Structures are given as structure tokens and as C-alpha cells.
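S., here's the first fold you wanted:
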Amino acid sequence: MKTSISIDREAAAEAASILGTTTLRDTVDAALREVVSAELRRQLAEEVLAGLLSVPTPEEVVRSKEPKLPRRASGKSFTGA
């Protein structure tokens, strides 16, 4: 969709520097995505603080990264034979 609007070029240049964008269109698109992302992060934080969303403990995070299957004691690989 094509739209004509007046844009504060100084603010756009600063936003482009922060966002790492090179064109005005990319800057505006990235800024809009960032606003939506920030709101979703705010809502998530609000749910965590209200106790509506559980957050894993550090111990649970460590356990979740452990292998699910026991490791073989010998150095031999399984060949299926």
C-alpha cells in the first residue's frame, strides 16, 4: 500500500542508525515492527509479574538442556547389527 506522509527526517535518521536500516521505508517498517514487539514484551512481562505465566527456575532450565537419553558407557557406536 502506498501512502504519503510527512516524516521528521531527523528522527528517521536517528531511528535508522539504531535499527541499522538504510532506506526510509525500511526504517519505518522496522520501527513499526519494533513498536509491536515492545508491546508484546510488555504484555508478557505483565503476565509473568501477575503470576499468570510460569517461568522456569534456573534448575529447570539446566535440566531442560540435559540429554534426554542416557549416554552409552562405552565409546562404541551403535551399528544396528
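And the second, which I think is the more interesting of the pair:
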Amino acid sequence: MRYGIYVVPAAIVLTLGSLACKPPKTAEQIKADTQRASNEGYQAFKDGKPRATNPYVTNKEEPYMAQGWNDGWDKAKADQEAADKAAADKAAADAKAAADAKAAADRAAAEEAARKAAEAVKETVHMAAAKALMNIHFDFDKSDIKENDRPTLQHIADFMKAFPAAKVEIAGNCDERGTNEYNLALGNKRAAAALAYLKTLGVDEARFTTISYGKEKPLCTEANEACWSQNRRDEFKLK
């Protein structure tokens, strides 16, 4: 058997020696590589690549590269989910704010419509009251309802029936003759007489209040029958 001698070139020896003696990476280098892998993983997610496409999973010598890539991919996914949730939350908040604003606007519009309707009804009532609530008059020292005032009281009763929510004050008044006490009592009788007559026309007495001013509120201040006849009256005022 013959033995041969093989000569290995020096360049190959040097190369093999340098590989065998390659120094380990420093902590800073590992950190930089890991960050680079993480950035790649982050971008991979944004590019739509699945987690299973990690190119470093076969690198057994540098497992931190695979971990860094996965961490980057996971962070990108978490960031996207957080952004999606924030967008959804904002959309929901915006929708709620819009719904609340619309509801508030609808309420305001309804309240305004109701206010206008109430004002219109109030104006209608006042216009009708101005036509119906006319004074009636009495003879001297009397509280009897006069025949020619009965149509006026009928108009008042019709008004009260047309506007069931309306309430009226009946104020009895007298002329200047007589004492204050006497005229206050007579004014009460005159207001009560009108109320009693209105009851016979089918109006609930609870819708009326009565008061006497005696001779305290004359319409005319001249000392003659023409003035006194104006002051001997019942006035009807919407409350």
C-alpha cells in the first residue's frame, strides 16, 4: 500500500482557520440585528405576509433573529388592531354624537312647534275672549240679571264651552253711592248672580272665580246717572 502526501494550499488553511476562530457577536451587534429583523417583520405584516413566512426560522445559530422578526410582525398586528379599534370607537362616538345632536335638534324643534302651537291657541283664546267677555250692567241697588244682558252671558257660556281650559274671573262693581262696606257686599252679589246664571247655561262653576271691587274701580267718575250706570257692572276677565 502506498501512502501519498497531500499539500493543502496556505490560502485555504488561513480561511478555515479564520472561520473556526470567528469571534461571537457583541451585545450591541445582536441588538442591532434583532432590531433589523423586527423592522423586517413589522414591514412584512404591513405588506400582507403571514407570520409563517419568517425567513429566520431556519437560522439556528441566531435564534434572536427569528424572535425579533416575530416580535416585529406581532407588534405591527397589535398596532393595526389598536388603530382599527380606535377608528371603530371614533366612528361609534361620531355616530352617537350625530344621533344625540339630531335628537336634541328634534326635541328643540318639537318644543318650538309646541310653543308656537300653544301661542297660537293662546292668541285664539284671547281673541275669542275679547269678543265674548263683555260687561253686563245692573239697576241701582240691584243684583238681578237684566233681560238684555242674558245674550251676553250666553256668549260667555259659549266661549267657555268652546275653550274648556279657559278660566274667568267675575268682578262685581258698583257706582259711588253708598258706603264701602255696602258696595263691596253688593258687588259680591252681582258677581254671584252672573255665576249662578252661567251655571244654568251648563258651565262648570269651578272655572270661575268671583271678586268684588265695590266702588273702588269706576269706569266713569262724573256724578250723574250716565256714569253711574256704567259703573254698576260685572266684568269678565280671562285668567
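Why I say that: Helices lie at 10-20, 27-46, 63-132, 150-162, 180-200, 225-231. The chain has two domains: 31-130, 133-238.

Talk tomorrow,
H.
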